[in-house]
Specification:
The complex is a heterotrimer. Chain A is mainly alpha-helical. Chain A is about 65% helix and about 0% strand. Chain A is globular and about 60 Å long. By secondary structure, chain C is of the alpha+beta class. Chain C is globular and about 70 Å long. Classes of the chains: A mainly alpha, B alpha+beta, C alpha+beta. Chains in contact: A-B, A-C, B-C. The interface of A and B includes residues 3, 5, 6 and 8 of A.
Chain lengths: ~280, ~650, ~300
């Protein structure tokens, strides 16, 4: 075995130790030991349930475009709220907690990466960077969105959305131009994050492996993204152009109908909704 | 040093093969390399690796014919037993590499595919795309990494071998090496030291070799007393891409796959080569050597290309010598599949697609057939005795040499795709020998020897660092040496150039002592490492020149026109016969005089002392190489008659006794 | 047939040396230097004579030979790694005009066309700098160790040929096998971040090695290693330890760290289909994880 017989030359790194060790003693945390599982669950959560909810949510909202002063939209909202007291646990279990988990892991991932799109301005890299940026924007937007409209936001002066007056309260909340612009940005970021995530998810899980398959999958994800973007922006525009007074009229009528045929807490009976005469 | 330990210097194919096998046999290996072993020069080998195989066997091939091709190609200058052992091992070596996962090209049935290389009529060459050397090296690198994880191998990458450490009896007891990052010196006591440090192309300035192929390790062993054999035999590859920093190889496989070498019949024809009609193209190799065509052995191809450019003035360009190597008649898909890698190299470095435009190529220094003299023990069957302490051992006991840095396998000229075989073979084959060396270890304390050598090396290093005011620039001096060596000691050699060149190199060696180092630091000082390596080039350059100067004949890669044996001139049968007889007499006389290994030992001032050693040709008697010689058939006839007579005579003697 | 040559060939003429005519043209270079590991870095300008068809290696060779900066000061030659100069050894990776590439295959003409007057050379940013353009890339090889990138043969005794492999399988495997561990992929990978472990005064070499290895293993193993794992998992014998490789690929720093930026495949000098390997590793990890969950 070799032995150091003599030494000339100084070893600068030994002579001038770095002021702080750059890497601390390895002691793998829970997160580190189960990194694969956590990242895979993170990836899955982005699709199901969070992504799936996003799709349902945007398509529901797009029903405002039916042009019936929010009647269709109201009926969809009613359908969701027919869950009654179950809605709260369902919301937490399938939307809020998965989303918070996805966001928390997402922030860890973002913190550990070093975007370099300046040096490598390739499409894939731009998308990688946008995925992170859009994720952060989407997170901030969704927080704001919840506070502004969801009843959880009531203690903070938000919670403007009233499920019994779905179209009119939404339309009122979205009237300020700044709000509309921020919504447009938020919705587009979320949609981008989802549809690009759909594509990377397919690579992560190994659904598409060859460059050709990746291109095909990409085309699909672009279509999904465009549809969702159209739905989201359409809903935004649709909400803002709702005639609030007419919508209230329709909602009041709908309310009466519901009272007539339901007891509190029971399921909504399928009632045909007459279209308001113009 | 508690456990048996071998020090391997160099992590190319030979060094890694030896390391892998040693570790497998339970011996600890310290593996020292100038670069991470995965970056060794072996990666540059493109074409393939030779061995007899199931297909060629059915066409009449066997190990003996591989041996015959190898020694015939080497102009009979190599001892035949080691070559026999190597060619016998060929199929096993390829099988092993196959098992290690080398992605050899496949036939549609899933067997290994083979191609034909120069100097043989059989398709013996297995290949992995156009990066066979890289693939073979990686397979061995992976196995060594596996052993490293197991703890039997310790790699010392970015370390420079400075000197073997010899005891009073002249036995090598280890070595002193230097860390190229911290510039620290370290002793490596070992039961045996194996040099596997490759060739010395950098002595020629630009060559096809990598920047680590300075030959310095071999030179340091030589200066410590090891003999150097056949130094003057330097293979010049016929086809290289001229470049400003290095000459990049265009593999022989480009010709193997059907590449055609030609020049326009009109000197420096200004037309686009693609638009020059067949009638105006001179396929000089095909016309001059109808049997082998473009696949003549390397030395012949080299001289013909050199000749067509310099003597016939048919170079494609006037100010830059080159000929066309044309692949444009081969379908693109075939080229991509079989030669993709090497064509990319041309495209990448020349900016022209060789699938569309004929490549411009010219010969370049490529391989050192010569190297450290090593011994062997002949077996009863004409091969080697496996495990003999003498196999691959230099004249310094305990110091071994394998791969390109030994002189043993390629004689006066190396066949294409034989180098990868010789490297892996010698690496595998030396392992049992080294295990036996470890079994007979010498137990005395050597620390004093190592301390002394480390001090000597420190002194040399310090002395170099103190040279800040010299008037010589090591890089300029290297270029000067390279230009001189390329001019006088490559394709064509003349005594009236070699003699003054030797004096020039002696003067350069003196001037080297005035080299100024521009970096006096003690951290990753590449400047002083290069200057040191340059200093060690001169003893080898001298022995190359001296060996070439003294060898007044033509043999393999050593071509001296003044001593060439011209073809027959007479046309009338009887006169022609007489001439052929005379030719054969002259050939026999020349063989008698010059079929000898050149052995150089280092004199006190770094000047070589040359002596000669008989070559073991006990298996295949020497015969003339007649590729393309005028009257070759007549000479062959006479030679065969004589050979038959000799055999008959021997038999008669045998019967009489 | 070969005639005695009377011609003396000038080595320069034979090998593409070029005469004057370009004497006035120069190449300007800006090099980010660093004298020792852990030291301060600083910019230095150099100017060398232009030659047609020259690459960054020739530029660095000229800088080494002149050992002078642009303003004429005597400086130590720039240190850099190189070996084969034909882009098969993987030594000479550096940041050239901000992008990771091999110095040998970076032609000056193209760089000038790309980025005007000056060429910028910097060491790779994902590895500790040893000196100037030389970096310590041990972590790259550590990745190969981690994923057991080898065929687990019993030994080197003659046991006949390897397994039969179809030409399709060979053509699939061969590109992956040309990976030369140059580090371009990890340099451009936004998920592969620098790990620099400095030896402490009170630490033995073995302790330091152990600590460093653990730090390396905590970070992303890198596209090159993922690709090698897939190469050996596809080999009939290599696949015999496929589970061990999957275990490694799903540990901390494994395949899950990939962020799908796909820079690796864009910068790979050998055009290795790294993202295909990554996606295949993703698929294999999916199957492996499910199997692990339900099979044991």
């Amino acid at each position: 075995m070799p032995v150091a017989a003599a030494t000339t030359g100084r070893n600068p790194s030994a002579a001038q130790p770095s002021p702080r060790p750059i890497v601390s003693e390895p002691s793998p945390s829970f997160l580190e030991r189960h990194q694969f599982l956590i990242y895979r669950l993170f990836s899955l959560a982005g699709l199901i349930p969070v992504g799936a909810f996003l799709v349902v949510h945007l398509l529901t909202n797009a029903s405002i475009l039916a042009g019936d002063d929010g009647r269709t939209f109201q009926s969809r909202v009613d359908m969701i709220h027919s869950l009654g007291p179950l809605l709260v646990p369902i919301e937490w279990a399938f939307i809020f907690l998965p989303m918070l988990f996805h966001a928390a892991v997402g922030f860890v991932i973002i913190a550990n990466g070093m975007p370099n799109v300046g040096s490598y301005p390739y499409v894939g890299n731009v998308r990688y960077t946008l995925q992170r940026a859009s994720g952060m924007i989407a997170f901030a937007f969704i927080m704001w969105h919840i506070i502004q409209l969801h009843w959880l936001g009531k203690p903070f002066g938000g919670g403007q959305f009233d499920p019994h007056h779905a179209a009119s309260t939404a339309a009122e909340a979205l009237q300020p131009t700044l709000v509309a612009i921020l919504y447009a940005i938020g919705v587009l970021s979320t949609v981008y994050h989802f549809s690009n995530g759909l594509w990377t998810l397919g690579i992560t899980w190994g659904l598409w492996t060859s460059p050709a398959a990746m291109r095909r999958a990409n085309a699909v994800s672009v279509v999904v993204g465009l549809v969702l973007a159209a739905a989201g922006l359409g809903a935004l525009g649709g909400m803002r152009s709702v005639d609030v007074s007419k919508a209230r009229e329709a909602e009041t009528w709908s309310e009466k109908q519901k009272r007539a045929v339901t007891v509190p807490g029971a399921a909504v009976a399928p009632t045909p909704i007459p279209v308001a005469p113009h | 040093m508690s456990q048996p330990s071998v020090l391997v210097i160099g992590g190319g194919l030979a060094g890694l093969a030896a390391t892998m096998r040693l570790a497998e046999l339970g011996v600890h290996v310290d593996l020292v390399s100038l670069v991470p072993v995965k970056r060794s020069h072996s990666v540059c080998a493109q074409g393939g690796i030779n061995s007899v195989n199931a297909l060629t066997r059915q066409q009449g091939d066997n190990e003996w014919k591989h041996l015959d091709d190898t020694v015939y190609g080497g102009d009979f200058l190599q001892h035949q037993p080691p070559v026999k052992e190597m060619t016998d091992w060929g199929p096993r070596v390829i099988d092993l590499m196959d098992r290690l996962g080398v992605p050899f090209n496949r036939t549609s049935e899933g067997f290994r595919d083979q191609r034909r290389f120069g100097g043989t009529l059989y398709k013996r060459t297995a290949f992995a795309g156009a990066t066979t050397g890289q693939q073979l090296l990686y397979a061995l690198d992976e196995q060594v990494r596996r052993r490293e994880v197991e703890g039997l191998v310790k790699k010392w990458e970015f370390w420079d071998f400075l000197a073997p450490v010899l005891d009073e009896s002249g036995r090598c007891r280890g070595a002193v090496c230097q860390d190229l990052v911290t510039m620290q010196f370290r002793s490596f006591p070992a039961d045996a030291v194996v040099l596997a440090t490759g060739g010395n192309g950098l002595i020629y300035g630009r060559s096809t070799m990598s920047m680590v192929c300075t030959g310095s390790a071999v030179s340091r062993a030589y200066q410590a007393g090891a003999w150097y054999g056949n130094g003057e035999f330097i293979q010049v590859h016929p086809t290289a891409i001229p470049g400003t920093d290095k000459l990049r190889l265009m593999s022989e496989s480009a010709r193997g796959e059907g590449g055609r070498v030609w020049v326009p019949r009109i000197p420096q024809d200004p037309r686009d080569p693609r638009s020059i009609p067949e009638a105006d193209r001179y396929y000089f190799l095909e016309e001059r050597y109808p049997k082998y065509g473009n696949l003549v052995p390397r030395d012949i191809a080299t001289r013909e290309i050199f000749d067509i450019c310099t003597n016939e003035g048919l170079s494609v360009e006037k100010d830059r010598l080159s000929v066309y190597l044309d692949l444009t008649h081969i379908p693109r898909e075939t080229l991509d599949r079989k030669l993709g890698g090497i064509l990319e190299i041309y495209e990448k470095f020349q900016g022209v697609d060789p699938r569309d435009t004929p490549m411009k190529i010219f010969p370049a220094v490529h391989y050192s057939m010569g190297g450290l003299w090593v011994d062997y023990e002949k077996s009863a069957t004409g091969g080697l005795v496996e495990g003999s302490l003498r196999n691959q051992q230099t004249n310094l006991p305990g110091l071994y040499a394998i791969g390109e840095c030994d002189y043993q396998y390629h004689g006066a000229n190396r066949l294409g795709a034989n180098s990868l075989l010789s490297c892996i073979f010698s690496g595998l084959f030396v392992a049992p020998t080294l295990v036996n060396v470890c079994g007979r270890r010498v137990g005395d304390d050597t620390s004093r020897l190592f301390e002394a050598e480390v001090r000597r090396q420190e002194e040399r290093h310090r002395e170099l660092l103190s040279r800040t005011s010299g008037d010589e620039n090591p890089y300029a001096l290297h270029q000067e040496l390279g230009n001189l060596m390329t001019r006088v000691a490559t394709v064509v050699r003349r005594n009236d150039q070699l003699a003054p060149a030797y004096d020039d190199v002696c003067r350069m060696a003196e001037r080297w002592k005035r080299c100024a180092v521009s970096d006096t630091g003690s951290w990753t000082n590449q400047n002083v490492v290069f200057t040191k390596a340059l200093g060690d080039m001169f003893p080898i350059a001298k022995l190359i020149l001296k060996g070439a100067l003294l060898r007044d004949e033509c043999r393999g890669a050593h071509f001296k026109p003044a001593f060439a044996m011209p073809g027959l001139v007479a046309t009338e049968p009887e006169a022609r016969r007489r001439e052929a007889e005379q030719w054969c007499d002259a050939f026999a006389a020349n063989t008698n005089k010059w079929l000898k290994s050149t052995i150089a030992s280092c004199g006190p001032s770094g000047d070589p002392v040359i002596s000669y050693q008989d070559v073991d040709t006990s298996l295949i008697p020497p015969r003339p190489r007649l590729y393309g010689l005028v009257g070759g058939d007549a000479i062959e006839e006479v030679w065969k008659e004589r050979a038959a007579k000799a055999v008959g005579g021997k038999q008669a003697v045998g019967a009489g006794a | 047939m070969i005639k005695a040559s009377e011609t003396v060939v000038d080595a320069d003429a034979a090998h593409g040396g070029h005469g004057d005519g370009n004497a006035t043209r120069t190449v300007r270079v800006r090099v980010l230097r660093q004298d020792v590991a852990g030291g301060e870095s600083y910019w230095e300008r150099h100017e060398v004579a232009y030659e047609p068809n020259m690459n960054v290696i020739s530029v660095l060779q000229k800088i080494a030979a002149s050992a002078k900066s642009q303003d004429g000061r005597r400086v130590a030659p720039v240190a850099w790694d190189c070996c084969c100069l034909e882009e098969v050894c993987g030594s000479c990776t550096m940041l050239i005009n901000g992008r990771t590439r091999m110095a040998c295959s970076s032609l000056v003409d193209r760089l000038m066309a790309e980025d005007g007057e000056e060429i910028e050379l910097r060491p790779m940013s994902k590895f500790p700098v040893v000196r100037d353009l030389v970096v310590d890339r041990k972590r790259l090889f550590g990745g190969l160790e981690k994923v057991k990138a080898w065929v687990p043969v019993e030994g080197s005794y003659d046991l006949g040929p390897g397994p039969r492999i179809s030409p399709e399988e060979q053509e699939d495997a061969y590109p992956l096998s040309t990976c030369m561990s140059c580090g371009c992929c990890v340099e451009a990978c936004p998920q592969y971040t620098k790990v620099e472990v400095v030896r402490r005064d009170d630490e033995t070499e073995a302790e330091f090695e152990k600590r460093r290895k653990a730090a390396f293993n905590a970070g992303f193993v890198g596209p090159h290693a993922v690709s090698q794992a897939m190469l050996f998992n596809a080999h009939p014998t290599g696949r015999m330890i496929a589970d061990e490789r999957m275990e490694a690929l799903t540990r901390q720093g494994g395949i899950q760290m990939c962020g799908n930026a796909q820079n690796c495949v864009a910068v790979c000098p050998k055009s290795i289909p790294l993202t295909r390997s990554i996606a295949r590793a993703g698929r294999a990890a999916t199957v492996w994880a499910i199997k692990k969950l339900f099979d044991r």
